[in-house]
Amino acid sequence: MSSDRTERSEIFSEVLKNIETGILILDLVNRIVFFRNNHAEKCLDFMNTSQDFENLSAMMMTELEQIKNPLVSKSTRAIINCDHRTFAYTIYRLEGFKQYVGVIIQDVTDQSRLEAIDEASEMMNNISYVFSGIRHEIGNPLNSVKMALTVLKNNLPKLSKEEITVYLERMSNDAAKMEALLKSFKNFNMFEKPNTVCVDLVEFYESLTQLLGADVRKKRIKVIIDILPEGRWVKVDTRALQHVSMNILANALDALNGVDNPVLRFSGEAVGSMALLSIIDNGCGMSETLVKSAFKPFYTTKPHGTGLGLVISKKMLSQMNCGIDIQSELGVGTTITLTMPRCPPPGGDSAESKIFI
Ligand SMILES: Nc1ncnc2c1ncn2[C@@H]1O[C@H](COP(=O)(O)OP(=O)(O)OP(=O)(O)O)[C@@H](O)[C@H]1O
Ligand SMILES: [Mg+2]
Which residues fall inside 5 Å of ion ligand 2, going by CB? Predict the structure, then answer.
């Protein structure tokens, strides 16, 4: 039995010595390198690191600190670049062996090269997607203006005053389209440095829906604001949240066109340190494909839409550490959920402060 066990540990030890992953075991009490396999030695050679305990523990100081915390079983992955190669190591706590820690070292050069190529081509794809969108969005009205100008230039004496007015109006509409697009680009860079303050969502959405009063009344939309006290106070930039909410509400109002008993509901709750605010409409809804494409620049189903409303909203939200998510069903309606960091109410209303953890 015992010779069986010895044989087994010899086999394991042989495998560990020759495996293509660097393994180190550090003895933190006696301050020695207890075990080091061939691959670890090779990697550390590449890294030009002297392989004694003191030197290794100095190099891995941050990660060793992390696993001193009894709730942490492994450190974050550290990356070391050396001589055009990339190495990654992680330190693991060895359950039941308090004085030892295990270090796994890997040569991730090929993996990081592939990731860098992937990232670069993803970025190029995104840029060319945006460029083709701009070319299309500005190209169309520009061509239309050029055509109208040619007609006017070649036929001016023959055209009646009414006909000339039609062409001029068309050009003015096209110019307005290009102007709207350029304004959207400006919005894209707005609130780059958000000024976050504690905002009361109930008050915020009450006054925002007042602003939309005429539209809401005309379409006979029932507005319900149902925000729980826990999810009521959030830390955001007020102007950015107003911009985002206006985009979402404009979409909801479009979706509610021609719907029987249109309802717009603002529902709020808290999950941990975040508040979830959902803007729910029972409008036309979106197909699965539409939901997937809604955050793509220039994606629109509207004749006069730029398809930038949600893209800009997402960017503004991410600058304030907030998120946005869409859930929708065709013919049933759409729920847009904003995730925002909670904050205790200013002035510390004791009832609400207690709820905020
Ligand atoms: N509440 C909603 N209900 C149904 N469809 C929606 C809703 N919100 C967004 N969409 C769909 O997502 C698309 C993209 O929305 P986004 O706000 O980005 O652009 P847009 O509304 O088309 O244009 P713009 O915002 O410039 O007027 C819309 O064209 C629409 O098809
Ligand atoms: Mg929109």
Answer: 251, 309
Q: Please check whether residues 72 and 122 belong to one and the same domain.
A: no
Nearest-CA residue for ligand 1 atom 11 is 294
Clarify whether residues 351 and 222 are in a common domain: yes
Q: What is the pTM of this model?
A: 0.62
Residue 326 CA: which ligand 1 atom is closest? 8
Residues facing 337 on adjacent strands: 278, 325
CB atoms within 10 A of CB 340: 25
Tell me how far the alpha carbon of residue 294 lies from the centroid of ligand 1, in angstroms.
7
- Residue 337, pLDDT > 50, answer yes
Per-residue confidence at 255, pLDDT binned at 50, 70, 90? very high
Q: What is the 3-state secondary structure (H, E, C) of 134-175?
A: HHHHHHHHHHHHHHHHHHHHHHHHHCCHHHHHHHHHHHHHHH
**How far is the centre of ligand 2, averaged over its atoms, from the C-alpha of 312 (Å)?**
10
> 91 and 211: one domain?
no
Domain that holds residue 346: 197-355
Same domain, 155 and 91: no
Judge if 204 and 324 occupy the same domain.
yes
Q: List the structure tokens of 294.
A: 């809604």
User: Does the beta carbon of 180 lie inside 6 Å of ligand 1?
Assistant: no
Q: What is the mean pLDDT of residues 147-170?
A: 94
Same-domain check for residues 177 and 206: no
Which pLDDT belongs to residue 350? 44
Rounded mean pLDDT of the chain? 88
CATH number at residue 38: 3.30.450.20
Does 244 contact ligand 1 (Cβ within 6 A)? no
